[in-house]
Amino acid sequence: MTRNLPHLALAALAAALLSWPATVSAETLCVKAAKANLRAGPAATHRVTWEVPRNMPLVEATREGEWIKVVDLDGDIHWVFGGAVAKGARCAVVRAAKTSLRKEPSAKAATLKAAERYESFPVTGEKGPWLKLDFNGQPAWAAAADFWRG
């Protein structure tokens, strides 16, 4: 019977580890720097995997010192320096091929800009299925379904 105890302990440990990520709440971060280099590992010596603009949302996975392991809208994993991102900020990135930024929250409203995939914006509000965005200092509305917010 005592021979099975190590197996039972390993099984219990494995079950605990497998259930752990489900209990951790992922936090959305927004790039606060003008641009941020996402990297392959937690140091400036690792290769740059993607250079992203301000207001790009990223989901925090874990931390290692001053570096944060993050997931992007495509599900890819990168590392970012903690000083380049902010918690609690609201941002969104276009996940559709293109979307229209409009003057009002209506598909019939005038278009201010055709935004393309990977363009990111600060979010200033919501109204039904619409996001209110800051577009170069002026309010703009876009279909929330066309965006990823982390």
Description:
The protein starts with a helix and ends with a strand. The protein folds into two domains: 64 residues, SH3 type barrels; 58 residues, SH3 Domains (SH3 type barrels). With 150 residues, it is mainly beta. Strands 6-5-4-1-7 form a five-stranded antiparallel beta sheet, with no helix packed on it. The chain has a five-stranded antiparallel beta sheet with strand order 13-12-11-8-14, with no helix packed on it. The longest helix is centred in the first third of the chain and has 19 residues. Helices cover 13% and strands 49% of the residues.
The chain-level structural class is mainly beta
Mean pLDDT over the residues: 88
The 3D shape can be described as elongated
CATH superfamily of the largest domain: SH3 Domains
Largest sheet geometry = 5 strands, antiparallel
**For this structure, what is the CATH class of the largest domain?**
Mainly Beta
Which percent bin holds the helix content? 10-25%
CATH fold description of the largest domain: SH3 type barrels
Cross-sheet strand order for the largest sheet = 6-5-4-1-7
Number of strands: 14
Question: Are there runs of 5+ residues with pLDDT below 50, and where?
Answer: 1-24
SS summary, helix count = 1
Number of self-contained structural domains: 2
